[in-house]
Design brief:
mainly alpha, 3 domains, three-stranded antiparallel β-sheet, two-stranded antiparallel ribbon, 20 helices, 5 strands, globular
């Protein structure tokens, strides 16, 4: 992995210095009438640079995972599935035709399911099937786009000539990308995927599964322009997803779920910038986010190993006394979420917020983004306060530092600290610095500082059912006692096609009952939210 990362780094450097040149490798399988079935790979500055980021993070995760999973009896199988996961992502990155797109897309879906259910518990199986079912919606949209490829008499998406077919194609594939990138209302699977081992979470949330949809939209938007209606949808869904992730994280005490919700918030920022037509800026934030989010997960993995798997932030006080380097890296990567000055995300996230101010955006989406920025600052400081600045509660800690845990964190820390500054000077992104007034610049900083202050002085938050279920997107069966409609004997249990606790809930040794959602409260709240969503989407642009 390190060798492939070095090779892709050299390739990316060559393409960056070739001033926009690209190499397309196209193989024609067969041809019927005027329709050509081809495999196509694109090697340009975008695909090769993103492949470099993916392989660099993957190499660090492989080194860390070999230590994290050393006591597992099937560690070789785990690493092979993880390798297939990375290869599928690289297929998607380099794809230039529908064939390779399906190969990478379905490969990500299958391998991610195998990794999420790796621990083979009922909660892991539930999370795996939830992830699989939501992502199947995106698969259906990609299969539906096959008809547009057939009508255009080609299977490559970099040479579309029909504007009508191209608009339909990018709309379908953009919606498919929203399911893979966990945008509202497809967000429920992302926190559930935390059932996977921590090395898997580091890959999923940084540079592979959740970024696949956004990268696909960026790749397509460089060849087929997004129409105004599609941009409006991306603006609103990105803003709502960003708010959803930040707001829910302020009420979460599970460390891995807090990081998962932070990923949800940052993905919303990227989709929001895509809606503004800033695809290069979204790609820039995608790279910086991949670096510091992988660093954040590996640092959190070291903390979890030292705490014997305890993930409650209220029990991890003063963990930095035993492992200062890891906690410093955790603090640095957490501050990247806020866009702290001179860290990597400062050069991308703050630029997106400044472009938001300078664009002709409606007041509702702008207000949602400012509120999301406030909640992001709040939950970051709340988490740092619980882990780094509070008194120790649990006396059971085991400090483990070796080359397999320190080296990956050190490699990724360079990208998390200096990556934004180094990449901002490259010609890949063609960044433009907006000219905004001192008032709006101070307003952005004031919102962030206010959230940090409130996060520091807040003592704690009670669990909120509305937020813990992500605006009632997640099934309530794992959060509240369910309502029941029918009993079945244990003999009938064998006929169920779904895994335990997806649609069922064991009550006793002799019977189980089917679960449904809470009726009136959920329906009324969901209808209110959806009416608000459609109204604000109508007001966009």
């Amino acid at each position: 992995m390190l060798f492939s990362s070095f090779f892709l780094f050299l390739t990316s450097w060559v393409f960056v210095n070739m001033q926009g040149s690209s190499v397309i490798l196209e193989v024609e399988l067969f041809m019927t009438s005027s329709l050509s079935f081809t495999f196509s790979l694109i090697f340009d500055k975008i695909s090769s640079s993103f492949g470099m980021v993916v392989t660099l993070i993957s190499a660090s995760v492989f080194i860390f995972g070999s230590k994290y999973m050393e006591e597992d009896h099937n560690v070789e199988r785990f690493l092979l599935i993880l390798l297939a996961f990375v290869v599928s992502m690289n297929f998607l990155t380099l794809s230039g035709s529908l064939m390779f797109l399906l190969l990478g897309w379905d490969g990500l879906g299958i391998t991610s399911f195998a990794l999420i259910i790796y621990y083979q518990s009922s909660s892991s199986v539930t999370a795996g099937f939830q992830t699989l079912m939501v992502n199947r919606l995106g698969d259906a949209l990609i299969v539906l786009s096959t008809f547009l490829f057939v009508l255009s008499e080609q299977f490559t998406y970099y040479s579309f000539e029909s504007l009508f077919l191209g608009t339909g194609l990018i709309t379908l594939l953009a919606l498919a990308g929203l399911t893979k990138s966990a945008q509202y209302p497809f967000s429920s699977w992302l926190p559930a995927a935390m059932a996977a081992p921590t090395p898997v979470s580091a890959l999923v949330h940084s540079s592979t599964l959740v970024t696949a949809g956004i990268f696909l939209i960026i790749r397509l938007s460089n060849n087929i322009p997004l129409n105004e209606n599609c941009k409006s949808i991306l603006i609103f869904l990105g803003a709502v997803t960003c708010l959803l992730g930040g707001w829910a994280a302020t009420y979460e005490n599970d460390l891995k779920k807090v990081i998962a919700l932070s990923t949800l918030s940052q993905l919303g920022v990227m989709v929001f910038s895509l809606g503004l037509g800033l695809s290069n800026l979204a790609l820039f934030h995608l790279y910086t986010h991949a670096m510091f989010k992988a660093l954040l997960f590996l640092a959190a993995g070291n903390i979890l190993m030292s705490s014997f798997g305890s993930q409650d932030i209220r029990l991890l006080g003063s963990v930095g006394l035993g492992m200062p380097f890891t906690v410093v890296m955790f603090n640095v990567s957490s501050l990247c979420l806020v866009g702290a000055p001179f860290l990597s995300a400062f050069y991308s996230k703050h630029l997106i917020l400044e472009m938001t101010v300078s664009s002709s955006l409606n007041i509702s989406s702008f207000f949602i983004m400012m509120l999301a920025t406030f909640f992001t600052a709040k939950y970051v400081i709340r988490t740092l306060k619980a882990i780094s600045w509070s008194k120790p509660i649990s006396p059971i800690m085991s400090v483990q530092s070796n080359i397999f845990t320190v080296l990956p964190v050190t490699i990724l820390s360079l990208g998390g600290i200096m990556g934004g500054k180094l990449m901002s000077s490259l010609d890949i992104f063609n960044l433009e610095i907006p000219s905004i007034s001192v008032f709006w610049s101070s307003m952005i900083n004031l919102v962030t500082i206010s959230g940090m202050i409130l996060g520091y002085i807040s003592e704690g938050s009670k669990n909120n059912h509305f937020l813990s279920t992500l605006f009632f997107l997640s099934p309530s069966l794992s959060v509240k006692p369910m309502m029941f409609i029918k009993s079945m004997s244990s003999l009938d249990y064998g006929w169920l096609e779904f895994p335990q606790s997806v649609f069922i809930y064991p009550l006793s040794k002799t019977s189980i009952k089917l679960g449904v959602w809470p009726s009136k409260q959920v329906i009324i709240s969901s209808m209110f939210i959806m009416i608000t969503v459609y109204f604000m989407m109508y007001c966009c642009y």
